[in-house]
Amino acid sequence: MHSTSSEKVFNLESATTEITVSSSDEGAASLWGHFVDSFRPNEVYLANARSATYGDGYDTEAAAKRTAQSPLSRCLKGRHLQMIAIGGSIGTGLFINSGKALSNGGPASLLIAFGVIGVMLYTVVHALGELAVLFPVAGSFSTYSARFIDPAWGFAMGWNYAMQWLVVFPLELVAASITLHYWQMNVNNAVWIAIFWTLIVGINFVGVKGYGEAEFVFSLVKIVSVVGFIILGIVLVCGGGPVRGYVGGKYWADPGAFNHGFKGLCSVFVTAAFAFSGTELVGLAAAETANPRKALPSAIKQVFWRITLFYIVALSVVSLLVPYNSPQLLDAKSPVDAAASPFVISIQNAGIAGLPSVFNVVILISVLSVGNSSVYGCSRTLASLGDMGLAPKQLAYIDKSGRPLVGIIVTSIFGLIAFVSASPREADVFNWLLAISGLSSIFTWASVCLAHILFRRAWKIQGHSLDELAFKSQPGVIGSAIGLVLNLVILASQFWVAVWPRGKQPTAEGFLQSFLTAPVVLACFVVYKVWQKTKFVKPSDADLVSGRSEVDTPALIEDLNAEREALRHRHLVYRVYKYWC
Predict the structure, then answer these.
(1) Separation between Cα atoms, residue 87 and residue 10, nearest integer Å
(2) How many whole angstroms separate alpha carbon 328 and alpha carbon 4?
(3) What is the pLDDT of residue 7?
C-alpha cells in the first residue's frame, strides 16, 4: 500500500517535472522564434516594395506616399524628444573643439561665432518643426527637399546627410578610445573601439526605443554636468576657487578679446557649426514619435534653451577662465584630446583634484552619445533614400520591429573604419573623410530653410491658411530667410579661409580638405538632375497631402482654436512658459 502511494507520488512529480520542462522549452523556443521573426520584412515595407518602380525615372507622387507610409516603429515619447532636442548631440564639438576655436579666434570670436550659429539654428529648427509636425514622414529634410525644391536636390541632401553620419560614427569611436588616454591606460585603442562599437550597434539593434532610452540617459548626464560646470565656473570667476583669486574679465584684456582678426573669426564658424550639428535630429525622430503634434512643438521650443544655456552661457564662463594662449590648448595631441578641453583646463587651473577626471567621464559619455546618434541618423536617412528611389531599394528594408535593418547594418560596417586608427596613415584617412562631410550640416540647414520658404508659398497658393498649421515657426518665413542667408555667408567665409588660409601658403590639398563638401554636393545634384531629368517643383504642384498628420481640416482647426482659447485663459506665467517651452 505504502509502495503504491510512493509510486503515485513519484509519477505525479515526474509528470509535473516533464510538463514544467516542456513549458520551459516551449517558452524558450517561442522567445527565440519571436526574436528571429522580428527580423523578417514588415508587411507595409513589402507592399511598398511591390508597388515601387525603380529605374523608370523619379516618381514624385509615389516617393512621397512611400515615405509617408514608412513602417518605422513609433515608440518615441515626449520625454525622449525633449532630451534629444536639449542634449542629444552635445559632444566633442562643445567640450573639446571649442578649445581650438578659442585659441584660433579668441574669446570674443568664440562667442560671436557660436551666437550667430545659434541664431541661425533657432530659425532652422523652428522651420523644421513646422514641417515635421505637419509631415512626420521618414527622411525628414531630404524628403522635404525632394518634395518642395527638386528631387535632384533631395538626392544630394539625402546622401550629404548620410555621408556626414557615416563619417562621424568611426570618428566618434576613435574619439572615445582617445578620451581614455587621459587616465594613461596601457590598452590598445583597437580594444576600446571594439567594445564601444559593440555597445552602440547593440543599442541600435534593440530598436528606436533602445536609442530613445539611451539618449535620455546620456542627455540627462550631459545636462546635469553642464549646469554644474556653469555654477562652478561662476564661483571660480568670482574668486571662490582654492587656488586663484578673483578672475573677472582679465583674460579678455590680456591676452585680449580677439586673435588673428577677422580671419580668426571666420575660422571659428565651421568649428561652431560642427558643435551644433545633430540639432536637426529631433526632426528626423518625428517619423518615429507616437504623437508628433503634441510632443514635437515642446521639443522644438526647448532648442532655444539648449543654444542659450549649453553653448552661450557655458562658453562665456569658459572664455573668462581660460586664456586663448593657454599652453594646454595649443598642445593638443589630436582633435579629440580631452586634455585640451577648455572645460577640463579651467577645472585643473582652479586646483580642484578629482573633478577633471569626472568631467572626462562626461566627455566620454557625450562622445558615445553622438556615436549612437550617428547610427540612428544615418540608418533612417538611408532607409528614406531607398523609399524614395534615390538609393538601392534594399536600403529601404524595414523589419517587423520597425527597424531599418539594412541601414543599421551598412552604418555599422562603415564604423569598422575606426580600426584604421592602428595604421600609420590614420591622419590622412580621417582628414579626407572629414573633408567629404565637413560642411554637410551647413547644406542641410540651408535646405531646411529653403524648403520651409517654398512650402509656405505652396501652402498659400493652394488655398490653405496658417490657422490650419498645428505648429507655426516662431520666426516664420522671415526667420527662414535669415537662416538661409546666414548659412550662405558661413559657406562664403569658409571658402575665403580655404583659398587664403591663415599663416600658410594656399595649396590644392588644403583647399579640398576645407571645402570638398561643396563640390561633392553640387556634383551629386547636377549628375542626378541630368540623369533623371528632374524639374524644380512648382508651388502649385507641390504635394501637400501625402503624410499629413491631420487631413480633417475643419476638425483640426476646431481643436486648435479650442486649445488656443484655453491657453488665453491661463495665467500669464503659464502662457510665457508655453511660448518658450
Answers:
(1) 62
(2) 86
(3) 42
